[in-house]
Amino acid sequence: MHIGIGELFSISSAACWALGVVFYKQLGDRLPPVALNLLKNGIVAALMIPTVLIVHGFALPQFQGWTLALSVMSGILGISVADTLYFRALNTLGAGRTGVLGNLFSPFVIVLSYLFLDERLTLLQFGGFALVMFGVLLVNQRRIDEPFAKAQLRRGLLYGVGAIAMNAAGIVMIKPVLEVEPFFWVALIRMIAALLPMLWLWHVLPAHHRVPSLRAVPWRLLILAAVLGQYVAMLFWLGGYKYTSASVASVLNETASIFILLFAWLLLKEPLGRRKLAGVACTFCGVGVMLL
Q1: How many CB atoms lie within 10 A of CB 158?
Q2: For residue 291, what is the DSSP state?
Q3: How far is it, in rounded angstroms, from Cα 114 to Cα 112?
Q4: Which of 100, 176, 187, 196 has an alpha carbon 20 to 30 Å from 71's alpha carbon atom?
């Protein structure tokens, strides 16, 4: 495969997202998932507003009713719900295991596209899905000497799979909207739609789901995670899809799981064994098969 600017953008997107995940794991030790998601979304929304004005100008777009409704629902499911569950999975499973769960994203998108967008699903793609599932199970199999309780592992897997499923549903939901509406406006509307229920939850949930004071927030790490792991990763993601084929960009984006394992090993001192590497290889092969 020729490595051009599009391929470099896609790999950079995966690396930025992976660093963000590791930073979110560190933040999760100090912030509850709801608070972390709300603060992260607020930072990204603040970055999206000038981006929209620079790219699309000051004229407001004329969204159709159905595109606006899908954008709002996609933001609630794919950001509010999905990211909160993902942060819970990070706290429960660690960055490495949760990162490999992310390889379920492409299979979920393909299956949901088959169910709701009438896209074709082949026997080869079913085989790829099975490979991904086997790899995920391989990575998340509990060793005897690990401190994980079975209930904790099951709960973490439930959070993680739920997060990936909600994220995939949000993407499939927004796909027809992106064909007729400007991308950055759609992204901003999704983010604002995600913020509103998070603000409501902030006020109604018990105190232990909130931060006692904004001074207690590790702002530098939070801003770094949001800017690098969300905003910059999104820009590289767009560049990858613009300058290379969608199938190549999709496969290269899946290398995020490898980066997460490496960064979690380097920065969080999470163990990196042969079984985890074999599981990543298996899920990566499965994603590749599904995209053939």
Answers
A1: 14
A2: T
A3: 5
A4: 100
- Helices and strands counted in the chain (H then E): 14, 0
CA distances from 60 to 8, 33, 48, 57, 180 (A): 33, 33, 15, 8, 15
CA dist list (Å): 207 to 82, 195, 201, 210: 22, 19, 11, 5
Dihedral sign computed on CA atoms, order 11, 14, 17, 18:
negative
CA quadruple 87, 91, 92, 97: dihedral positive or negative?
positive
Q: For residue 170, which of 155, 184, 191 has the smallest C-alpha distance?
A: 191
Q: What is the pLDDT of residues 14-50, one digit of tens each?
A: 899 999 999 999 998 888 898 899 999 999 999 999 9
Four-residue CA torsion sign, 143, 144, 148, 150 = positive
Question: What residue ranges do the domains of the chain occupy?
Answer: 5-290
pTM exceeds cut of 0.85: no
pLDDT in tens, 85-108: 999 999 988 888 887 787 777 778
Q: How far is residue 111's CA from residue 107's CA, in Å, rounded to a whole number?
A: 6
State which amino acid sits at residue 168.
A
